[in-house]
Design brief:
There is one protein chain. By secondary structure, the protein is of the alpha+beta class. It has 2 domains: 2-121 and 266-276, Diaminopimelate Epimerase, Chain A, domain 1; 128-260, Diaminopimelate Epimerase, Chain A, domain 1 (Roll), CATH 3.10.310. The chain is built from 5 helices and 18 strands. It has an 18-stranded mixed sheet that branches. It is globular, with a radius of gyration of 18 Å. The model has no long low-confidence stretch (mean pLDDT 96).
Length: 278
């Protein structure tokens, strides 16, 4: 029997496991089973929280299909809320270890409840050889590709996870399964890619739809929202402080163009807790 907590950030829902207690070893197979929305708990994946000597806490994230991700912006906010409100790490500023490095977070707490979390998302990486992209150029910024029957302009970067950003006139009229899947599986990617379709509302507001590798369309992605604003800023279509509206809610992204560090602010919510009978 395994104790679990269901949490969501902007509708990006994961099952959270305190692995210091539960000690799950086969995390990939466990995730595939419990993430199934018919035969399991139902989620975009599973996040395993574990103590570490390198930071205040750490986590590993597995997608719905059992593949491991490096980082999750919505997930890290939920981890911060989880460890704070459960008394594991009672700090307003934390260091959280991820597969893409240690991230710094700041918690906005009122009466013992975490209202929102600001995450230092780090410096984006564009170098193709460092982010798993086989391409003749060192960077891919607004490069033209033929995707099935459309000509699309792609910007590729990593903010802990690899993302491919495409600007479109209307995100609601995109066949996201058709084009998202095609871009995810392009041969230039050594380990697939996440995909964001971005509609510019104005220079301070954008709307995006997210196609996550190993999952499909999700309601939100924190690293994807961050990548979208950075890509928009570099392409001259948004300001460096921008509201991002996803299907699951709103995030605020700030990109410091002097230090190149990006920040994300958003909420995290408990949904329910329970026991899983294995």
């Amino acid at each position: 029997m395994v104790n679990f907590t269901k949490m969501q950030g902007c509708g990006n829902d994961y099952v959270y496991i305190n692995n210091d207690i539960e000690k799950i070893t086969n995390k990939s197979e466990f995730t595939k089973r419990i993430s199934n929305r018919n035969f399991g708990i139902g989620s975009d994946g599973c996040i395993f929280i574990e103590s570490t000597e390198d930071a205040d806490t750490s986590f590993e994230i597995y997608n719905y299909d059992g593949s491991e991700a490096q980082m999750c912006g919505n997930g890290i906010r939920c981890v911060a809320k989880y460890v704070y409100e459960k008394g594991i790490v009672v700090k307003n500023k934390m260091k959280i270890k991820t597969k893409s490095g240690i991230k710094k977070v700041e918690l906005n707490v009122e009466d013992g409840i975490v209202k929102n979390v600001k995450v230092n998302m780090g410096i984006p990486v564009f170098s193709t050889c460092n982010i798993g992209v086989n391409y003749p150029k060192d960077v891919v910024i607004n490069e033209r590709f033929n995707i099935i029957d459309k000509e699309m302009y792609l910007t590729i970067l990593s903010v802990g996870n690899i993302h491919t950003v495409i600007f479109v006139d209307d995100v609601e009229n995109i066949d996201i399964e058709k084009y998202g899947k095609a871009i995810e599986m392009l041969e230039i990617f050594t380990d697939r890619t996440n995909v964001e379709f971005v509609q510019i509302v104005n220079k301070e507001n954008i709307k995006i739809r997210v196609w996550e590798r190993g999952v499909g369309e999700t309601l939100a992605c924190g690293t994807g929202a961050t990548a979208s604003v950075i890509a928009g800023y570099l392409n001259g279509v948004v300001e460096n402080i921008c509201n991002v509206y996803l299907k699951g809610g709103k995030l605020e992204i700030m990109y410091n163009d002097i230090t190149n560090v990006a920040y994300m602010v958003g909420k995290a919510e408990f949904v329910y807790e329970g026991k899983l009978y294995q």
